[in-house]
Amino acid sequence: MSFSRGPHTFTVTAKLFSKNRERLVDVLRTKSKPRSVILLKGGEETLRNYSDSVINVFRQESYFFWTFGVHEEDFFGAIDIDSGKSILFPPRLPPAYGIICGKINPESYFKEKYGVDEIYFNDKGKVVEVLKKLNTKHLLLLKAENTDSGMTMNSPEFEGRSDFEIDETTLYPVIGNLRVFKTDMELEVMRYAARAASEAHKNLMKSVRPGLFEYQLERGPNSAVLHYGAANAPNNRKLKNGDLCVLDMGTEYNCYASDITITVPCGGRFTEKQKVIYNAVLRANRRVIEAAKPGVRWTDMHHLAERIILEDLKTAGILKGEVEEMIAARVGGIFMPHGLGHFLGVDVHDVGGYLGVSEYDATPRSSLLGLKSLRTTRTLAERMVITVEPGCYFIDTVKKIWLEKFQVRIEDDVVIWEKENEVLSNVPRTIEEIETFMNS
Question: Where is the Aminopeptidase P N-terminal domain positioned along the sequence (predicted)?
Fold first, then answer.
C-alpha cells in the first residue's frame, strides 16, 4: 500500500521504510549480540491542558516513522535482528471508536498498508508474548538525546520488560546516523516537499505589500529577532513600504521536511543599504553551496560564511580592521549568532549532528559566539541533506550600527554530492530576480 494526498500528489510506497529497516538491521548485526530484537514505541496523542481536545493533528514520533512509516498513534514495532522479521502492534480500538471516528481496521489492513511481516493487536501482554516466541534475549531500546533541545527521549516502559536484557546504548547512534544519509526514495520525497515549499514562497512573494499585518507576514525591525512571533513578541505590526520580510517556512510531506528562507522587500524594491547586506549574505550562501563537498568539515563552512559577510561589511565601510582579527574576536558571531545550517529529514532540525560516538565524527560543540549554535560539526559526506542559511542581523540587543535594525537570511536545502551539490529549493534569489518577480 502507498501514501499520497490524492491523484495529483506524490506517492510514497512502503518500500521506503522497508529499505530503512534493512539498512538498520545490516548495521546492527555487526554491533549486537545474537537473539537481539529492536523494540520501538510510536507517539501518543497529546491533549490540550487537561481537556479532551487534542493539541494538533497527530504527528508520528520521528524515529518510529523513519523505521515503519506508520501514521497512527499508539503503536509498538519490533524487528528481529537475526532474521530481519518486522512486526507491528497497533492498538485494539474500542467499538465506540467506529461510531465516532470511522472504520476500525483489522490486522490484515495494517499488514498490507505498512508492508511488515507480522501484525498483532497490542492486547495486554501481547508484545512480550511475541518477543518470547522470537526467543529474544537482548532487547534494543531507544534512549535518544536531542542535542538541539537538550531533551532526552526515554526508552519505553512496559510490563515484562525485566524479562529481557535491556540495551539502551547500541540503537541510538546507529539509527541516528542512518537518518543522516538519505536513500534515493527518501530524496524523492524531499524533492517533492521542497518543490511545494518553493511554490508557496513564490506565491507569498506576490502577496507582499504595505498594509498587511505581521501575522500575515513577518517583516521589518522584528525580522531581526531570529524566532520572532513567540508569546512575548506577537506578530501584530503593519507592513510599511521599505520593510524587509524574512520568511522562514517549509512544507512537510509524509513527515519529510523542507525548510526555506527568503528575504524580500515590502513594496518590491530593495533600498541601497539593504542591497549591500543582501548581496553579502547571498554571496556567502552561494559560496558555501559550492564549497560544501564530501570531506569538508561543516565548521569550516560556517567560518567561510562569516568571512565573506565580514569582508563585504568591511568593503561597505560598516566595519574597520583586519578580517582575520574580526574572526578571531568572534565579530562574525555578533552579526550571525546562529549556526550556518542543520540536517534535514524526518525532522526539520534533523538528528545526527552530535551522536556522542567518535565513530560518527562530530567534534565537541564550541562555547564561542555563533559557533556554539552549530547544530553539527561533522565532516560532510554524500547523501547528507543540510540547510545552508547564512544571515546578517542588526539587532538592538546585540549591536545597532549604520542603519535601522533588520536582518537578511537566505536558506536553501542542499543534498551533498561528490560532483555537484543539488539545491532542492527553487526561488528567486538575486536582487534582480526578486524585484523582477515581485513586480511582474
Answer: 12-150
What pLDDT digit, counting tens, does each position of 54-98 carry?
Answer: 777 889 999 999 999 999 999 999 999 999 999 999 999 888 777
Q: DSSP state, 252?
A: E
Kindly state the DSSP code that residue 213 receives in the 8-state scheme.
B
CA distances from 175 to 23, 74, 124 (A): 9, 21, 28
* Bridge partners (DSSP) listed for residue 247: 262
Sign of CA dihedral 94, 95, 101, 103: positive
Could you give the angle at the alpha carbon of 74 between the alpha carbons of 72 and 79, nearest 5°?
90
Residue 122 CB neighbours (<10 A): 17
Does the predicted model carry a pTM greater than 0.85? yes
CA distance 229 to 222: 9
Question: Strands 36-41 and 76-80, how do they pair?
Answer: antiparallel
**Domains of the chain (ranges plus CATH)?**
2-180 (3.40.350.10), 184-438 (3.90.230.10)
Q: What is the DSSP string of 345-408?
A: SSSSS-S-S--S-GGG-PPPPP-STTGGG-S--PBP-TTBEEEE--EEE-BTTTB--SS---EE
Kind of pairing between the strands at 256-257 and 165-167? unpaired
Q: How far is CA 51 from CA 48, 67, 75, 270, 411, in A?
A: 5, 32, 23, 48, 38
d(CA 104, CA 107): 10
Q: What is the pLDDT of residues 129-178, one digit of tens each?
A: 999 999 999 999 999 989 888 899 999 999 999 999 999 999 999 999 99
Of 280, 264, 292, 228, the C-alpha closest to 391 is 280
Element (H, E) at 265: strand 260-265
